[in-house]
Every structure is written in structure tokens, then in C-alpha cells.
Design a protein that fits this description.
The protein is an alpha+beta fold and about 210 residues long. The protein is about 35% helix and about 25% strand.
Length: about 210
């Protein structure tokens, strides 16, 4: 199963340039390479994540997104064609990437489980008749500062998902300031759309 998955992903990687618009090639490459990286790290769990009959997701949605963003950032700067002319992408906030909706900063408190929940104040409003209104997700964590000392706690950060940040060796009750790149709380938008399409394409071949 693991080798079959690896082979399917590799085959998709080799055909991207033949079935993609120039502006989406880098997104797709990074999405498939992110899958390969997670397949190497969590082979069995990743297979179950792709299996529609399994309810075991193991948090792979945010892990895939973070790996995809990391790979995309490593490629910067890169050039795409826009209106048949070269256009250079220099940073993750470039409008042509359609991933992040800006920088958000919020205050929070480390709870008894050593976590801080997403406290983003900006709301994404969209969908039909603007009925979809939710706080933006944690996209890419930029910094977490102790509000009292102004020192960064990034070295104490264990992991983060779309909705919370997990720490170690910190005191519960510590007030913090969180800075992050925000993404829409909608899996069919931005970078998540590329990841979901890649996932669906791979799953169809299993």
C-alpha cells in the first residue's frame, strides 16, 4: 500500500506540467511533495487519511498545509506567467498566490493543557448570501510573545493546528501575543483547495 501510494504521487508529479496552468504548477508540486514527505514520516496513518472509508484523519489536514507552505516558501522567489507575461512571486502574502488574507495579531492565555486557542478577531464572511462567517484560521505562525516579558516563546512551541497552539515548559496562565498569517476557515479556498484536489486525485487511484 505504501509503495503504491508513493508510486501514484510520483506519477502525478511527473505529469503536472502537462495538465496545469502555469500559475498553479508550483502549488501542485508543493502539494504532492508535501504528501510524499508525510508519507515518509507517517506511512500507515497517511494511508488511512486518504481512505474515504476511514474516520482516522490524525490531524493531517493542518500538517499537510504546513508542509506545503514550508515547501512553497523555500521556492521563493519564483516566476509565473500572468497575462502571458512573467510575474515574480516574492513572498507568501502576494495576492497572486491566493493563500493568506493578511497578518493577524491577537492576545491569548496559555491554559492548563499548555495550549492557546485561536483568538483571531478578523472574520471570513463568504459563501452564498454571505452566510459563512467564522474567525480566520491560524495559517502560518510568525511569533508568540510572552506579554509580560516581550520574549518570544517560539522555542517552547510544540505544534500548532488551524485552531490552537501547543506548548511545553511554560506556565499556565501566561498571557501571550500571537502573530500569524491568516487563512479562510474553508477547505475549498486558497492553499487548502490545492491540497484537497491533490488528495482527491490520489485517492481516486487507490
Amino acid at each position: 500500500m505504501i509503495e503504491k501510494l508513493r508510486q501514484i504521487i510520483q506519477e502525478h508529479l511527473t505529469t503536472i506540467a502537462y495538465h496545469s496552468y502555469d500559475a498553479t504548477i508550483m502549488h501542485k508540486r508543493c502539494a504532492y511533495h508535501a504528501m510524499l514527505n508525510l508519507l515518509d514520516k507517517y506511512p500507515i496513518n497517511f494511508g488511512e487519511y486518504l481512505d474515504h472509508s476511514s474516520n482516522q484523519h490524525f490531524g493531517f489536514q493542518h500538517l499537510l498545509f504546513q508542509e506545503y507552505i514550508s515547501l512553497l516558501e523555500q521556492e521563493l522567489p519564483f516566476v509565473i506567467l500572468k497575462h502571458k507575461r512573467p510575474y515574480q512571486i516574492n513572498n507568501l502574502l502576494d495576492d497572486e498566490l491566493h493563500i493568506f488574507h493578511g497578518i493577524s495579531i491577537f492576545e491569548g492565555m496559555i491554559n492548563d493543557t499548555l495550549a492557546v486557542n485561536n483568538g483571531t478577531k478578523e472574520f471570513y464572511i463568504g459563501g452564498r448570501s454571505a452566510v459563512y462567517a467564522k474567525p480566520y484560521f491560524l495559517g502560518k505562525l510568525l511569533d508568540v510573545q510572552d506579554q509580560n516579558t516581550q520574549l518570544s516563546l517560539m522555542d517552547k512551541m510544540v505544534s500548532y493546528s488551524f485552531s490552537k497552539i501547543q506548548f511545553r515548559d511554560v506556565k499556565p496562565g501566561t498571557f501571550v501575543i500571537v502573530k500569524h498569517l491568516r487563512i479562510p476557515p474553508h477547505y475549498q479556498m486558497g492553499g487548502m483547495a490545492h491540497i484537497n484536489k491533490a488528495k482527491q486525485s490520489i485517492a481516486r487511484h487507490l
